Amino acid sequence: MICSCRSLQASALSFLLFFTSRRGRGRDMSCPNSLLSNPRKIATLRLSKVSGHTTELLEIQSDKPTCHVLFIPGNPGVVSFYKDFLESLYELLGASASVTAIGHISHTEKNWEHGKLFSLQDQIDHKVDFIKQELQNIELPIVLVGHSIGSYISLEMLRSLEKVTYLIGLYPFLMLNPLSKQQSNIENVAESSILSALLSFSVATLGLLPQCTLRFMLSKSLGSSWSDTAVDAACSHLLQYHTFRNMLYMALMEFRKVQ
């Protein structure tokens, strides 16, 4: 699930600052006041074909990077949720690392995959293919940062990619909690194709409401911990049948795999 931007930043920042400072010896790797006072560099959305799948990427390119941070989201794998986090991380690292977040297949605003369902292994293979396709030839070390089930995906990527140097897991989901009612309820729904389809259809129906109404409803129900960016991402991505259906299917695969 989505955690607050601030808590994610604190978890990742300490290691990344240590890593980039070692890589950048001889350079001032602190985050100077001049950088903080300048307008924040904005993460840009890009669509890329990765192993035949249209993929959403959020990117911030550094002029003088010492490493490349590849962020693997949790479930839902909507990169727009993490926009504030990525921009803050880039800024706090003193612009010393290029940062890319890669979304999961069919956790997208548009139904590029025409309703097809993708397993956890599909998502792992997709991320490995992305590195081979776009990052294999860069001369910088790659640091994986995974959130929730993204940490599990990153671990599996680490097994097959020599290019990856380090891995950071943020709130890693690596095992089930048999006492969690929430996990049990999600698993029960996800195991039923009928319930999954009905719930996804019900959620998608909400997406037909006017955007201003959706934003108001989500802001009130989710509380102040969700930023405006996260609420916008929920409106544009989560309330889509194909996205929600793939979220539930991926959750089912997670429960089976981590058992």
Description:
The chain is α/β, with parallel strands linked by helices and 259 residues long. Helix content is 49%, strand content 15%.
Structure, briefly:
With 259 residues, the protein is of the alpha/beta class. It has ten helices and six strands. The model is unreliable at 25-32 (pLDDT under 50).
Radius of gyration: 18 Å
Report helical residue fraction: 40-55%
Form type: globular
Distance between the termini: 19 Å
Q: Would you report the number of β strands? A: 6
| Overall pLDDT confidence | 85
Biggest sheet strand order reads: 1-2-4-3-5-6
Keywords summarizing the entry:
6-stranded mixed sheet; 49% helix; alpha/beta; 259 residues
Summarize the SSE layout with pairings.
Blueprint: H1 5-23, H2 33-37, E1 44-50, E2 53-60, E3 67-72, H3 83-92, E4 97-102, H4 120-135, E5 142-147, H5 149-160, E6 164-170, H6 181-191, H7 193-206, H8 211-222, H9 228-238, H10 241-258
Helix pairs in contact: 1-3, 4-5, 6-10, 7-10, 8-9
InterPro entries: AB_hydrolase_fold (IPR029058), LDAH (IPR019363)
Protein name: Lipid droplet-associated hydrolase
Subcellular location: Lipid droplet
